[in-house]
Amino acid sequence: MDCFLILIALVTFVYLGYLWVKKQYRFFKDNGIPYQEPTFPLGNAWGLGYKRPLTYFLQEAYNAFKGKHVIGGIYLFTTPAFLATNLDFIKQVLVKDFQYFHDRGIFVNEKDDPLSGNLFALSGQRWKTIRNKLSPTFTSGKMKLMHSTIIAVAKEFQGYLEPIAQEKKEVEIKDILARFTTDVIGTCAFGIDCNSLKQPDTEFRRIGKMVFEFGSLDFLKQFLVTIFQDLSVKLGVTVTKPEVSEFFMRLLKETTEYREKNNIKRNDFLSLLLQIKNTGKLEGDDTDLGKMTFEELAAQTFLFFIAGFETSSSTMTFALYELAQNQDIQDRAREEIHRILEKYNGEYTYEACMELKYIDQVIQETLRKYPVTDTLIREAVQDYKIPNYEFVIKKKSKVLISSYAIHRDPEIYPNPDKFDPDRFTEDNIKARHPYAWLPFGEGPRICVGMRFGMMQTRVGLANFLSKYRVRTSPKTPIPIVLAPNTAVLTAQGGMWLQVEKV
Q: Average pLDDT for residues 167-175, to the nearest whole number?
């Protein structure tokens, strides 16, 4: 009898769950909003992490809605979300009406998962407070202080490539570039010599890889924290892998204690955060930023690490992939590097790197075709009526902006599959809508580390191209197929290219 009652209760629970999901899936139809048909029970996120990237689906949805509607509807699991397709409306969301959309709606559990409380994920006043503390650490002056550190790692990078180029080897370039950026970030963030270029299996590199691995358990957790965010916090759900969290918390505790005990100061990110943690100010600046807890410091340093090494290495990977197929563009970029280096006596000074305008165009065009963070997410913090549109976006609803789809819109970028850095001359930039290029986001929540990311990528490409040429090989993926199980835009199967001396 007891088993029968349990079975009845289970069947009833499943049936009620089914009815609830079906009700959710009527949201857009009931409100007269065009939408993409969901697949039970995961909505339009059915292939996320397994069959195909959400990137492709959002591009298809964008193309279906564009020109007909300001927004369209999609389902993230069982949650209705809006896909923005109009650049003027996107400007409203990111800037003009930012007070309605200042959150990303990403899961944060600072109590049980301190590293989740980073600037990228935080909401409301917590985000504003941390943003105000971090912004002064990413000024051009602070970037200039870190530049020499990046150059030192870049010289080791050049040396590592020498024997590879001598033999004209075919290599998986993404892994090499990720080891380079890991060494850069390890030095600039923690003042630690990771040495992953020479020793690819170092703990730093292993943990860095682990952050971006997305398995079945991660998929289930993402489902839970997306649908039941408040409940997940109460249940103590964590999204940072335990081994990753333990490594970074231990590393930062040991490093900060050693520096504070021995009064060690360095030109790195951690040193700046320690100043804020202990005094609430940066040296040479009387602005009171407010002190920072150790957990807050750890979360922001963790973000600096994971965002800094993966995004820049992916951007350089895609840039070299395109340059391998466009030797004329590669030669033009190399000519600029040699010309600027000659002007500065062969030294990669900060000023020299800032003059690499064509290299910047190459990077900008790379980020157009391959925006590493390909989707921007904003969450309404109060009800919002869309201008010139009858529908109201309810509080807690998410608005998605597919930078990947916008960047490949032929009405914005003619012949979008063509790699053409001249799209980013000053005149061509001015001729386009200012919100047609969004690899770093825009508005108050624009990526705070954009300057550092551009600087690291610029230095890496300049050091590579000044001495080495890159070509396609039989294993080069042409065309690229995006990997379905990564947190950032990545080529499936890696990126194989041939490297040779100039």
A: 93
